[in-house]
C-alpha cells in the first residue's frame, strides 16, 4: 500500500520559511497558532512529523498519525520550496498551511471469498455490503467474512447490484436490494436486516423484471427506492417499478411453488414502465441521483443525462473512448466522474456553459478503469478501480492519488465506499476486500 508518490529531498538546505499551521479539525488535533520557522525543503512527510511533534508537546498521550497539507486550497505533493516556486507564492510572508488527516487506510480486513469473479458491490447501507458474482449469486455481508444471505435465482453472472432505500411505511427490519444479470433479467429481493443467522440463508427474489433483449449491465435505484433503472447490451435503458407490492399494473403473478414440501413465497414478474432510447452500443453504467434525472454511460463513447418525465436526453458528452463506469457527486453533487477503455479517470462539470471538456483528468492507472465512486459526504474525494489490479483514492486538490491499494491479485471489477471510512472492492481473484480506517473530512 503506497500512500503517495512524494519523496523528501535528501539534500540539506539552510533556507527557512515562516509558517503558521491551521486546521478545521477539533481538539486535540489543533497545534499552537503561533508562526514558526521551518526548513523550506520539507515535504509532506517532514511536515507531518513536525505537526505531530507540536501536538505531542501539548499532549503527552498523543499518538502520531499521518497528515496532509493544503496551501491555497491545493494539496502539497512536493517540497515547500518547489511548491512555492511552482505556484509563484512569495516565501517572504508568513505562509498559512492547513493540515487535514491523511486519507489512507489504516487496516486491511481479511478478504471475503466468493466462488467466482466479484463483479459488483454496493456499500450504500451501513448495515451490510451487497455483492454480485459471476457464479450467478448475490450475497449479503454483515462484515468481513460474515455472509448472512445468498440471493439465488439468476441463471447467468450477476453484473450489477443496488440497494433500494427502505420506505418509511415499511417495517424497518426489511431491506430491499436489486440485481442485474447476463441472463437478461433484473431481480428484487427482500431480507430481514436483523436476522441472526449461524450460516448463510438462501432467499428467492420476490420480483423478476423481464424486458431486455440482451445482457443487463447496470442497475440503479431512484433515491426513494420506488423505481429502478437498468442499462443493457441491447442499447436501451428501462425504468421499472421497485415497490415490494405485486398489485401494481404491469405485473403478472407467478404461482407459489413447493420446495421441500413447503409453499414458498410467490414471485411476480414486472414489465418496464418506460424505455429511454438513444445510445447506439452497450449501456454500461446508469445512475439515478435525483428523482427527475438519470445519467448513463455507454460503449458508444457518450455520457447522457435524461429527463425522466419526458424520456429525452438533455445533455450528451462525447469523450472518444468506451465508457465503463459513471458516478455523480463532488461539489453540490453535480460533477460527473467516468472511466473506461483508457487509464484516465475524467471529471466533468455540466454546470459550466459552453464547454464539454473534462475539468480534471487523473492518469495514474495503467489499464481500463472499471469503477469510480464519489464519497457521498465530500466534495473532493472519490475512489477508482482498474483492470491493473489497483484501487486508487483521489482528491480533486491534487493530481496524484492519495493512496494506492494493491490488495487484489487480479483485475479489480468494482469498488465503493462503506460506512464513510471504508473502501470495498471486488475482483477477478474472487475476493471482496475491505480497506478500513480512512479519514475523509
TrEMBL record:
The keyword Signal does not apply. Residues 17-84 form the NLE domain. One of its GO terms (biological process) is maturation of 5.8S rRNA from tricistronic rRNA transcript (SSU-rRNA, 5.8S rRNA, LSU-rRNA). GO terms for cellular component: nucleolus; nucleoplasm; preribosome, large subunit precursor. This is Ribosome biogenesis protein WDR12 homolog. Belongs to the WD repeat WDR12/YTM1 family. Pfam families: NLE, WD40. SMART domains: WD40 (SM00320). The lineage of its organism: Eukaryota, Viridiplantae, Streptophyta, Embryophyta, Tracheophyta. Its main location: nucleus.
